[in-house]
Design a protein that fits this description.
mainly alpha, 18 helices, 2 domains, disordered N terminus, 433 residues
Length: 433
């Protein structure tokens, strides 16, 4: 036992540089994703107009629902399995092949459903060429093996592929989007650039990690799909939760109020990127430690999570005192105190959201997907109910209150199962004894 603990502790020390390196490259990945739209959007609006840009945004939102189906939670389930089996090439090859075959099946089904919806509903058929070209985004997203890079804990190649993709997208926009009638090409270029990045990333995986496509069985696919079922429902719940806030607000409030809320929400999502990157970086190591020692896992979480929460709180304090500048930036010099209030409340939600990272990652590492999924699905239901009630009373302030309630429920719910599972695992006899 002592030898095993020493090995685990030594492993944690040697992986500290890996955490920093992966956090750095994954941060670049997220910063590029966040910064490029901020640069491109003003140019696009000047070329295609606000109305056509709205059509592009609507099509992008519509096609993202199909992204959720094709991804099917593999970014979590496959990452977990790759991380604990990375030294076993046969298992890695099987996971790699099974995930891609599963995605191909989902992609085919989604495309047929997508076509059926477009040609069934007049509002979609009127912009059929825009929607058809937008499906390239789903294809590109399906090709990029984020889950394998995370499981192997080597994020620099993912960052490189993402930067290349965004550069291609940016160049295409500058070269080919000149007239309002070119709007249908915007999402196509984003999809094609993602497809290029996906093909390149697969080539890197084959060469760098010596992974190969192998023959798999129907049983392999069925097992993969079945094991990720709850994560899929969880992803759907999260997607509904993230997209329902502005939609419900739009039913009860004026467009101007929705606009103010949307600005605050952008700040909220920008801050959440800190938590997203952190959770993606440490997840493979949590999976490794969970498979070997509960004691080592607890020590690791305490060592990395306490400084991270301090970083999140510092970031929220900075944003809290910079709200006047944020309002002035987005509203061209105007200080909107309602916007400032929304951002301040969002800062509290960010801290609460960050506190659930050890819980949900530990639950997934111990394959407690049902507990994780149950909390998220209930959280989604609570969010919708709270939105309908509070938005009707307080408009955009009610939306933020609903998010605060939802984040609190999810954090406490996951925390309850987290401590329950850790207590159970602490009393189990290790398999290696």
């Amino acid at each position: 036992m002592l030898l095993k603990y020493i090995e685990n502790f030594s492993l944690k020390r040697t992986l500290q540089s890996t955490i920093f390196k992966n956090y750095f490259f994954l941060s670049i990945y997220q910063v590029v994703n966040f910064a490029v739209p901020l640069i491109i959007v003003p140019y696009l609006i000047s070329r295609i107009g606000v109305a056509n840009f709205g059509l592009v945004a609507f099509s992008y939102a519509f096609v993202n629902y199909f992204n959720v189906i094709v991804d099917y939670g593999f970014n979590l389930s496959a990452t977990q399995r790759i991380s604990v089996n990375r030294s076993n090439k046969e298992v890695v090859n099987t996971i790699f092949s099974t995930v891609y075959i599963s995605k191909l099946i989902f992609l085919s089904i989604c495309f047929l459903l997508y076509i059926a919806l477009i040609y069934t509903f007049p509002v979609l058929y009127a912009q059929r060429w825009l929607h058809l070209s937008s499906f390239a985004i789903v294809v590109g997203q399906a090709l990029i093996p984020i889950w394998l890079f995370q499981g192997m804990e080597d994020m620099k190649f993912l960052a490189i592929c993402n930067i290349l993709s965004k550069l291609i997208y940016f160049a295409c926009i500058l070269l080919y989007i000149r007239l309002p009638t070119d709007y249908y090409l915007v999402n196509l270029f984003q999809g094609l650039s993602a497809i290029v990045a996906g093909i390149l990333s697969i080539y890197i995986v084959l060469k760098k990690f010596n992974v190969r496509f192998v023959r798999i069985t129907v049983k392999d696919v069925k097992t993969e799909v079945t094991s990720g079922k709850m994560l899929f429902f969880s992803s759907v719940a999260v997607n509904i939760y993230l997209n329902s806030n502005a939609f419900i607000l739009g039913v009860f409030a004026s467009p101007a109020e929705v606009g103010i809320y949307s600005i605050a929400e952008k700040v909220y999502y920008a801050l959440k990127q800190l938590s997203n990157v952190f959770s993606q970086v440490i997840f493979p190591q949590i999976c490794l430690l969970a498979a070997s020692s509960v004691t080592a896992l607890k020590a690791f979480l305490k060592k990395v999570f306490v400084p991270f929460i301090a970083l999140i709180m510092l970031a929220c304090v900075v944003v809290f005192f910079a709200t006047h500048l944020i309002s002035s930036y987005f509203l061209k010099g105007e200080i909107n105190y309602h916007l400032i209030l929304l951002i301040n409340i969002f800062c509290i939600a960010i801290i609460i959201n960050a506190c659930d990272i050890p819980a949900f990652q530990t639950l997934l590492a111990y394959n407690e997907k049902n507990k994780y999924g149950l909390v998220l699905i209930l959280g989604c239901a609570i969010n919708i109910i709270a939105n309908i009630v509070l938005v009707n009373l307080f408009k955009s302030l009610g939306t933020v209150y609903a998010i605060l309630i939802t984040e609190s429920f999810i954090t406490f719910g996951l925390g309850y199962y987290f401590f329950k599972v850790l207590k159970q695992k602490s009393h189990e006899i290790p398999h290696h004894l």
